[in-house]
Amino acid sequence: VKGENSNFHRYFWNGTSWADGGAYQAVELTSGSVTPPKTTFINKGKNLCNESAVVPTSLVGGSGIIYTGNVSFGVFELSDVPGGTTLFCTGLSAGGYYTAFYDASGTFISQAVISSSGQAITTPTNSARTKFTVPMINLGKKYIQIEIGSAATSYEEFAYRIEEKALPLQTKLELTTGTV
């Protein structure tokens, strides 16, 4: 048995070399299996628009239809905001582009038109997903912000934050050589 990064693995001799036999009496988490939505202590900051998640060459049309092939626009989906939430959208459009609301099964509910560069919208009470048309020209300019509330606040890049108060208190344990 050999310790490896605090996860203990068992090794066996396969006739020519030592081979990793996997986790020893433990449940080993696969890399990338703990994601922010699966925790109670990693939350999004105030800007809910993750620009790297914008699907390019697409836009939201009437009745929630997603059209593809237009290089000027992309679609961003927000799926973790409860229905009945007011969102203030900055930098999405000044030309009257659609935002569409869908229920948990993906059925179209209704739409809103973002007609100014800063506008508040309220998600329908039965919505679970919202898709926004995003002008590609605004990406990367520290301009696009979707936030909870009815007024714009100062720009903040999309990021996840660790809520220290939500983490349980831990006692630091130090081992010296030869003691357990």
Would you write up a description of this structure?
- The chain is an all-beta fold and 180 residues long.
- The protein contains no helices and 15 strands.
- The chain has strands spanning 2-4, 7-13, 18-23, 42-44, 55-56, 58-60, 66-68, 73-78, 86-90, 97-102, 108-114, 118-122, 129-135, 145-148, 160-162.
- The protein has a five-stranded antiparallel β-sheet, with no helix packed on it. It has a three-stranded antiparallel β-sheet with strand order 1-2-3, with no helix packed on it.
- Strand 10 and strand 11 (108-114) form a beta hairpin.
- It starts with a strand and ends in an 18-residue tail after the last strand.
- Mean pLDDT is 85; it is low at 175-180.
In short:
The protein has 180 residues and is mainly β. The protein is built from no helices and 15 strands. Mean pLDDT is 85; it is low at 175-180.
Uncertain segments: 175-180
Number of strands: 15
Structural class assignment: mainly beta
Number of helical elements: 0
Output mean pLDDT: 85
Alpha carbon gap, first and last residue: 16 Å
- Describe the global form: elongated
Largest sheet: 5 strands, antiparallel
Q: Beta-strand percentage?
A: 35-45%
Q: What's the helix-strand series?
A: EEEEEEEEEEEEEEE
- Please give the order of strands in the largest beta sheet: 5-8-13-10-11
The proportion of residues forming helix, as a percent range, comes to: under 10%
Radius of gyration: 23 Å
